[in-house]
Amino acid sequence: xxxxxxxxxxxxxxxxxxxxxxxxxxxxxxxxxxxxxxxxxxxxxxxxxxxxxxxxxxxxxxxxxxxxxxxxxxxxxxxxxxxxxxxxxxxxxxxxxxxxxxxxxxxxxxxxxxxxxxxxxxxxxxxxxxxxxxxxxxxxxxxxxxxxxxxxxxxxxxxxxxxxxxxxxxxxxxxxxxxxxxxxxxxxxxxxxxxxxxxxxxxxxxxxxxxxxxxxxxxxxxxxxxxxxxxxxxxxxxxxxxxxxxxxxxxxxxxxxxxxxxxxxxxxxxxxxxxxxxxxxxxxxxxxxxxxxxxxxxxxxxxxxxxxxxxxxxxxxxxxxxxxxxxxxxxxxxxxxxxxxxxx
Length: 344
Known about the structure:
Order of helices and strands: EEEHHEHHHEEEHHHHEEHEE
Number of domains: 2
CATH topology of the largest domain: Ribosomal Protein S5, domain 2
Mean pLDDT: 91
Shape: globular
Radius of gyration: 20 Å
CATH class of the largest domain: Alpha Beta
Low-confidence stretches: none
Distance between the termini: 19 Å
Largest sheet: 7 strands, mixed
């Protein structure tokens, strides 16, 4: 076995899209419940190695802003385990914070997993999330870290533990997600998020029931059988109901109006182009991830996604500050590897 001074652990944790809550008001006594999708193309990557004193460094400019949060997670892990061996933690790449990709949970679990592996500890992701105060509302990021895919959780329990995973379905390999981001905005998080939720009128039980029905009888069966039309119809109904519900707290159905115009254009273009391109005949499943500002348009193929992006550019809807990418769903979770390396 290699000496610790030559070890380096690397972990890549994928981002996720939060596609909506099932019952944010808890009309039957259990709040939240979430639908989410793990995606390829965006991720947090960390490296852990030996050091003479604790050191947290960032590999790029974007990760610099996350050093303080990462240091806090490392301190909490030491507090819970009592382990004080000096370590060097490098944030090679991080998900954009407060953008709808689950950056905080993925960073916490990435650090927690490499810390546990370094010390030979068998700690579940649920335990790590609980220690690091993640998964307080949604368990999608935790389940996504573990196994990827299209996920449904049952909302956090009264004991404060993260939400249990209720369903995990492999996302169809051919389907694609057009991701539209607005770097000029940030979604709500932390105390602001909690306060915003508290100011909203409770979502009526009838609408929560509608959301649950859409997820159970359209979204999940559609994904499981590769039928895009019911999947898209279900996602669109869920997002319509939740967008209207959260609009007073986020300044509209979409946090970024420009992002909202872009994904709505994709949906409308799909309907208009159905005669010319059969892959677009069902339009798109559109919406906002969490509090935004990231929005998505899920389409049934790479060609339909490329056609949608081309149409967006041609229409001049990608104004300065907006970025667009095409990604696939990811049906696996975080990847951990161990290498030999010279000590720092």
